[in-house]
Amino acid sequence: MRFFITITLILLFSLNLKAQTDWVELSGDILHLALPGAAFGATIVWPEEKLAGSKQFIWAAGVSTVATYGLKYLINKERPNGESHAFPSGHASRAFMGAEFIRRKFGWKAGVPAYLLAGYTGYTRVHANKHDYWDILGGAAVGIASSYIFAKPFTQKVNLSFGRQHEAYTLNFSMVF
Predict the structure, then answer these.
(1) What domains lie within the chain, and their CATH numbers?
(2) Cα 64 from Cα 58, distance rounded (Å)
(3) Residue of 20, 35, 105, 118 with fewest CB within 10 Å of its CB?
(4) pLDDT tens figures, 31-75
(5) CA 93 to CA 118: how far, in whole Å?
(6) How far is CA 18 from CA 1, 6, 88, 105, 143, in A?
(7) Neighbouring C-beta atoms of residue 65, cutoff 10 Å
(8) pTM of the predicted model, to two decimals?
(9) Using CA atoms, how far apart are residues 82 and 33, in angstroms rounded to an integer?
(10) How far is it, in rounded angstroms, from Cα 139 to Cα 142?
């Protein structure tokens, strides 16, 4: 009997929680911090990136934040829900700063998923009626520009070689990601 009461209480609590929480908006609130967090964490994990990569991230994040909030107060565009300071989106700025930092440091293989998550983060702000797509594009531009300026580019190691084995000629192409 206790099992059924416990299950019933869990279901009632989860239904009540779901009714009070917009999961799409909550996921955007998490991702706008998780993407830059992952970018910064990556600079700590890879030994060759520790000092230089961390400094580059701090500069990119700092410039992105100052530019975003400076523009918010300078432009003071109204949000779709009637609040002020919509342009550019801070969530989009942080998410795209993290995505571009990941792409610059670790290449497109890591950058594509990061950019997809950043795009979804922008969508969550439109879904929550906090921004329109112009606000998202403005935030994305600020975030991408700051990482593009401060993050050292990813260098692909490409090897192209020609060879001959017996009667056949070979062309070998390899790329390290």
Answers:
(1) 22-176 (1.20.144.10)
(2) 10
(3) 20
(4) 888 889 888 888 887 766 567 788 899 999 999 999 999 999 999
(5) 9
(6) 26, 18, 29, 38, 32
(7) 17
(8) 0.74
(9) 25
(10) 5
